[in-house]
Write a structure and sequence with these properties.
Elements lengths: L12 E4 L9 H18 L10 H8 L4 H12 L5 H22 L6 H11 L3 E6 L3 H10 L10 E3 L14 H10 L6 E5 L2 H9 L3 E5 L5 H13 L4 E3 L5 H10 L3
Parallel strand pairs: 1-2, 1-4, 2-3, 4-5, 5-6
Helix pairs in contact: 1-2, 1-4, 4-6
GO molecular function, one term: phosphatase activity
Organism: Cercophora scortea
Protein name: HAD-like domain-containing protein
Length: 253
Amino acid sequence: MTDKHTRATQITTILFDCDNTLVLSEELAFEGCADLINEIATAKHVKLEEPFTGGKLITEFVGQNFRGMMISLQQRYGFTMTPDELDDYVRREEDVVIAKLKEKLVPCPGVDAELEKLAAAGQYHLAVVSSSALRRVKASIEKVGQDKYFGNDVFSAATSLPTPTSKPDPAIYLHTIKTLGKKADECVAVEDSKSGTLSGTRAGLKVIGYVGPYEGEERTRMVKILTDAGAVIIMNDWSEFESILAKVESGSV
């Protein structure tokens, strides 16, 4: 019997996370929501040891959307929000973050060249699969001119599902695969976070772990985190993508 990891696989579909995979958005986004979370803490009489900053939120919640963060923070600090309150704050966070992204967002280094090659070859179906709200994801890829590669195939755990969720729940990947009419073993995902990698692997996908946005010791740490979460191979730079995809297709990873 041939081991499933050594069989060649026909990959038809590439699923890209958005934040810090296609675009360098995480720092901007977390800056935008830190002030709002501190405002919520004050309104809910939550005593923080120190106010949240964008950097602290990235460390704790990278890969999760705002709704997921708020659910975690309610459990941690013992406060509650009504569904309407949460929905209102989610909308406010979207507005704040989108304004920042429209002002300063840039693509991840090297990704546009790879997207152009993939589009020109016409061999793969390309889609975006994100935890972030659909409005934010679309604003991000439109800002940097990547929307032309994906058409309507942009999926959001916060918006595209009957019940909003967030990675690491695999629901958004399962929904995407079903909507596109694909099977898990013909898709590969590219993810930069633990939650995203877990989401992909739990949906039965092979995941390429991208660590390009991380530097120094943080990159070394993330290589281990993404590998432990199930990434089959690590990509340091988008210039490596073509050779890494070939390894996935050959079954060597």
